[in-house]
Amino acid sequence: MAAKTLLLALLAMASSLAMASDPSPLQDFCVADKDSKVLVNGFVCKDPKVVKAEDFFFRGLDKAGDTGKKLGSNVTAVNVNKLAGLNTLGISMVRIDYAPRGLNPPTLTPRHGDPHRQLFVGFVTSNSDNGNRLFTKMLKKGDVFVFPQGLIHFQFNPGYTNTVAIGALSSQNPGTITIADAVFGSKPPISDEVLAKAFQRWQPKSSSSLLAMASSLAMASDPSPLQDFCVADKASKVRVNGFVCKDPTVVKAEDFFSTGLDKAGDTGKKLGSNVTAVNVNKIVGLNTLGISMVRIDYAPKGLNAPHTHPRATEILTVIEGQLFVGFVTSNSDNGNRLFTKMLKKGDVFVFPEGLIHFQFNPGHTNTVAIGALSSQNPGTITIANAVFGSKPPISDEVLAKAFQITRMAAKTLLLALLAVASSLAMASDPSPLQDFCVADKASKVLVNGFVCKDPKVVKAEDFFFRGLDKAGDTGKKLGSNVTAVNVNKLAGLNTLGISMVRIDYAPRGLNPPHTHPRATEILTVIEGQLFVGFVTSNSDNGNRLFTKMLKKGDVFVFPQGLIHFQFNPGYTNTVAIGALSSQNPGTITVADAVFGSKPPISDEVLAKAFQVDKKTIDWLQAQF
Ligand SMILES: *[C@@H]1O[C@H](CO)[C@@H](O)[C@H](O)[C@H]1NC(C)=O
Ligand SMILES: *[C@@H]1O[C@H](CO)[C@@H](O)[C@H](O)[C@H]1NC(C)=O
Ligand SMILES: *[C@@H]1O[C@H](CO)[C@@H](O)[C@H](O)[C@H]1NC(C)=O
């Protein structure tokens, strides 16, 4: 009898399964075109020329959902259906309201009202993990909990007051499978006989059989290609992530071919370098294949100025002459370390994804290099162009604050920086290959991410973090403070491709222009107001700036790898909660990485990049 009651209770639990993972973006963004009749994986893309800041924006997450229905909970989802800019970016957000004794699905961070408001949460592992173990935890305000991809989970408000939670999911459209509905409410129904048989073992035992039966599939998805090839059909008017495929029967060898990489580019322009790119725009056969090639020519003293590729790692070999190369690590790696190397003919060097890098020919003869990039359309973000040359420009106030100089100096620097060529190459996290892989920080073995703890000793605490209700100290110079809950603070995030931040902004506080080399960010304002913006890569009609003034309950997306900022223009504190599509998104603060690396990037490289004299560069470096 008790089992029966428990069965009904469990069936009533709304559990959800999110399987496989989203594809990686193949361009800066691909805003969903809901009007299109064409069906693709996700949505086809709107014409980028008509994309507006509103496409990355949603208003109303401050409003409680109606919890009057029988389960006493209500999920307000901000997915690609409500926020078209999320298409291809692999992330979304939810607000969940729980009435007293209210029960329901996904995610994190209870907040609001008195500190006694609480939430009882749990998830069940798959059949493979020693048979469907249940992990539970009682959460209070400021606590964070992770539900690994695809596992059945629930949340329950055991208290006498309402509870509110904000969650983020690592898919633009995570989907939800409510077990009870799926098993007992399918159309047409699963036959009585099947169900009777399926559940026979269950009644006298525990909940595990039912959960096992309905348990989840957490699997990795194949990267890019889903067929031998998908030659880009440039004639098609349909916009998708990348390009639609040509009819394979008319595909020819020429589609995989381009000529002329033996020809030097003209290095006569001011920086003395020229990049000839062979990407999907030149070889249509590269579509969906995740690779492209470049030839770079450098005149004597020629510079390929600091830049990043938002969607690629680069590997490069010197064919003629010599080349001084370098890249700067993200803020988290002991603060923007500079790695440099003098290359000669035949040498090969790698620029890791998303990191700012440059090449300089210190010799008296021409240099030629051939590089390959791990994207069909890696994109390039020239730091100075993106930061100081966006259209329309980022406000003087934001730039002056970010670079800690006067507005006048910002304007001068702006002109100088327009010349800097910087690039960022970004990747996304690999998909999980098991239910979870809790980071074993004690292990000496170094892998991509962390090695996994023995699952037998994994505890609910491994998926848990406490304290996101506490404001960070905004007293430092920029007036903002980011509290990040990434894999370093929450070991259970390892391999799951998601993390969370709380950002506090004092009045006039700035989170200065930065990028996350491995993640898209989705953010909602909890208190106060926020002026936000991001700048597209060089390829998108030249560094367009998208801005929006956000108020409480608004949601905004910053596409993967793009330079973005947030500024509190008000006279009161602002608080935002964000989620990022990586367990360790990394942050590259543009000003710090360029002017404050250790050791510093040479005067000569920076002076040339910014087209100013070395004294100015020395002065700038002294500011960081
Ligand atoms: C959730 O709340 C919204 C807004 O109050 C309401 O329109 C909707 O019907 C509710 N959904 C459920 C399942 O109760
Ligand atoms: C690079 O070289 C090509 C071919 O000589 C030329 O058309 C192009 O304008 C050059 N680009 C730059 C930025 O100098
Ligand atoms: C952010 O706030 C925390 C907690 O108040 C503080 O320890 C930390 O130093 C602050 N960080 C910055 C960069 O101000």
TrEMBL record:
Superkingdom, natural source: Eukaryota
Residue ranges annotated for the Cupin type-1 domain, each copy included: 59-213, 259-411, 466-618
Residue positions binding Mn(2+): H514, H516, E521, H564
Subcellular location: Secreted, Extracellular space, Apoplast
InterPro entries recorded: Cupin_1, Germin, Germin_Mn-BS, RmlC-like_jellyroll, RmlC_Cupin_sf
Keywords (A to Z) from UniProt: Apoplast, Disulfide bond, Manganese, Metal-binding, Secreted, Signal
Protein's name according to its UniProt entry: Germin-like protein
